[in-house]
Write a structure and sequence with these properties.
By secondary structure, the chain is an all-alpha fold. Helices cover 56% and strands 0% of the residues. The chain has helices at residues 11-27, 35-50, 56-70. Helix 1 runs antiparallel to helix 2 (35-50) and helix 1 (11-27) runs parallel beside helix 3 (56-70). The longest helix is centred in the N-terminal third of the chain and has 17 residues, at 11-27. It is globular and about 50 Å long. It starts with 10 loop residues before the first helix and ends in a 16-residue tail after the last helix.
């Protein structure tokens, strides 16, 4: 993806793209090699470039949840996180 491809994208798109990149920057060491995470990041950036503005937050959140899962931080949704009850 070229940087020029983002010209005229608007502040909202750039802000969401920055959120995707910062998420990866804060959770992954520079020397870690994770092709699956890299592919998801590129897919998210492409989706942010094409998505309607009202859908940008959904794209960003979906990426963050998928990336967290790849990194081993899956949210618990089938039981109580405190006591383990269904």
């Amino acid at each position: 993806m070229e940087l020029a491809a983002w010209s005229g994208g608007g502040l909202a798109r750039v802000t969401h793209a920055q959120a995707v990149l910062e998420f990866v920057d804060r959770l992954v060491w520079e020397t870690e090699h994770d092709p699956a995470l890299f592919d998801r990041m590129l897919a998210a950036l492409r989706a942010l470039k094409e998505a309607p503005e009202r859908g940008l937050a959904s794209v960003t959140l979906a990426f963050q949840l998928q990336a967290a899962g790849l990194l081993g931080y899956r949210p618990v949704a089938d039981r109580c996180a405190g006591c383990g009850a269904p």
